[in-house]
What we know:
About 0% of the residues lie in helices and about 30% in strands. The protein has 2 helices and 27 strands. Strands 5-7-10-9 form a 4-stranded mixed beta sheet, with no helix packed on it. It has a 4-stranded mixed beta sheet with strand order 6-12-11-8, with no helix packed on it. Strand 19 (about 330) and strand 20 (about 340) form a beta hairpin.
Amino acid sequence: xxSAVLNCSPSVQLSESxxxxxxxxxxxxxxxxxxxxxxxxSESNESVFKSAKQSKIARSVVxxxxxxxxxxxxxxxxxxxxxxxxxxxxxxxxDPGSYHFPAVKGNTDVxxxxxxxxxxxxxxxxxxxxxxxxxxxxNVKYSDGRIYFDTPKRFHLGNAVIAxxxxxxxxxWSWHIWVTDYPTSxxxxxxxxxxxxxxxxxxxxxxxxxxxxxLLYQWGRKDxxxxxxRIDASEYASSTITWPEPVLSSAETGTxxxxxxxxxxxxxxxxxxxxxDWHYGTRNDGLWASQKTVYDPCPAGWRVPDGGSKxxxxxxxxxxxxxxxYYGFEFPISDPATSWYPASGFISYEGVLSLHGEYGFYWSxxxxxxxxxxxxxxxxxxxxxxxxxxxxxxxYSVRCCQISE
Length: 405
């Protein structure tokens, strides 16, 4: 055995005035060249303590170590305001540092209301690794109309959601923090449009990797849901919270107000009951639109693309698709030659994660006029459907489109 790991729950708090005792049980062993102790705090700050002294672990004997004084963590330099290019419901962070943005509704300058504090709702690497609070972002606070946060010392790609709350603890608004290398622009055929090189929330464009899946969105909602951490099966990625159970759409739950106050709650529908939408009673075509709306989930300068007969995928004119051994399509485009579309699955109208490695579904903003549904593009084992329609309560991937001047 070369190492032992002691994971403490978030309830373990260290004191500045009094040492906290920890006990690690090991088999009898002799450290002839000494040993080292690595301490990683809840904000991923790492401290290493080494001893070159020969030490022996004996049966039923406690080997006492001296108290360890943890150094103050290094604070990253202030990197800047995330709204320099405009406000949004999603902000991209590509480098370690300290960041801030205004507490306004996405894509507007409208205040979210009387903010008391800001909290992290969840964080995820997009894989199955254990993670504690502060793994993707940390030190979140609200001050003078803006929300501030740092990346931890151990910088890690992933996703997080920050919420602003009022004095009663009600969520007023929430924002997606997308920690990834900055997406590049890709030009599609026939002047169809310019899209990102990755799905919204993806931390790579690697074919065959679930890090290319990104997050999932119910049509018209601004807040994301976790995707699978497996390329060939539907298993939710790990995160820092236990997600609430899906709720059935009703006059109480199927409203925009409810989604704002409950951004982690999936709203499901009965497949046999119109309007086949998480939004209860009547459809709301204005939640997403070609003119970027307050509920659009894409970063500043980007939006959910158009669909249907005038959508970016249909206009691109591509008809020949080959499903890759890496579970997806190399979609032919103008520049570069292809764009990777993973079979990133979906969440069904019943709130069930499904079909990863077999199909990928991509929302557009375009409603289907004669039904309660909206247009999407899908890829699958039998090819691609460039202009399909389906129930708005499904959660699909989003591939953001650049907003033209």
